[in-house]
Amino acid sequence: MSGETLLCARNLSVQFGGVKAVSDVSFDVQRGEVFTLIGPNGAGKTTVFNLISRIYTPTAGEILFEGRALSGVAPHQVAALGIARTFQNIELFEHATVLQNLLIGRHRHLDHPLWKELLFTPSVRASERATREKVEQVIDFLDLQHYRDTMVAGLAYGVRKVVELARALCTEPKLLLLDEPSSGLNVEETGDMAFWIQDIRDDLGITVLMVEHDMSLVSRVSDRVLAMSQGQVLALGTPAEVQAHPGVIEAYLGSAGDLSSLRRKPAIEEAA
Predict the structure, then answer these.
(1) Does a structural domain hold residue 272?
(2) Could you count the other beta carbons within 10 Å of the beta carbon of residue 137?
(3) Which SUPFAM superfamilies does the record match to this protein (predicted)?
(4) Strand-pair partners of 8
(5) DSSP 8-state class, residue 150
């Protein structure tokens, strides 16, 4: 980690009708780290992602990216700032090939006027070559060579997850938002995902902000973890510190009183 703040969330709150999905949440993401949001279902983790992506607008608080407030940024402009995202429910063009999906991820880097595109000028041709080279680098990085020309609709779920990750990388982000990257993956695929997340940080220099339920993956790749429950912050620290926090244990497992009701009663008591 560089010690430089890349993303800063301050006193974030968002309310839908009478429901507060996020309440007074604050955290900083340092450049070069893997920062993970954890918590039970409904804790507000994906809502935080939607606030950063500008899908939602906070009721209160602010988000700064590289010192710039995101409040005035339209959702379609977020990628141009250097923020890319994957989704819990895969969002790919199913009737296009892997290569075509990844080329779409380069769209933000194409800024030629329409007349140059129509005439296919030398500068456009050079840009197309550079785009193809970048996409091929991502394909090699994630071992997708075998699937390059395969339609997404014919791919296994685990491969689709990697393709969506690849498309996000093709935007050349500074910050990568991963929404439950191990969801639906088997043990081997989750292990591969862990390696790739570490390589994305260490080899590509991309900062990662992740939402994840698999605590083995969280412990393996995360530098810091923020635990949430019912829209609020429970704990912030290293994976070990957060997992040992009493509030986090209670949020996941219930209180000692709740757990005592699950213990098997002595036989003599059951027979009474």
Answers:
(1) yes
(2) 13
(3) P-loop containing nucleoside triphosphate hydrolases (SSF52540)
(4) 28, 64
(5) S
Among residues 172, 187, 213, the one where a domain terminates is 172
- To which residue do tokens 């005439």 refer? 119
- Residues facing residue 35 across a β-bridge: 209, 224
Give dist(CA 249, CA 214) in Å, integer: 15
Residues 259 and 181 in one domain: yes
| CA 94/CA 147 separation, integer angstroms | 13
Which of 191, 27, 188, 177 lies closest to 91, judged by CA?
177
How many domains would you assign to the chain? Answer: 2
Among 197, 191, 198, 125, residue whose Cα is nearest residue 165? 197
Which helix (H) or strand (E) segment holds residue 200: the answer is: helix 187-202
Where residue 34 falls among pLDDT bands split at 50, 70, 90?
Answer: very high
**Per-residue CA distances from 81 to 70, 76, 220 (Å):** 10, 10, 29
Q: Do 140 and 194 share a domain, yes or no?
A: no
Distance from C-alpha of 181 to C-alpha of 214, rounded to nearest angstrom: 9
The whole-model pTM stands at 0.85
Q: Which two tokens stand for residue 138?
A: 């991502």
Name the E strands within 183-258: 207-211, 224-229, 232-237
pLDDT tens for each residue of 68-87:
999 889 988 898 899 999 98
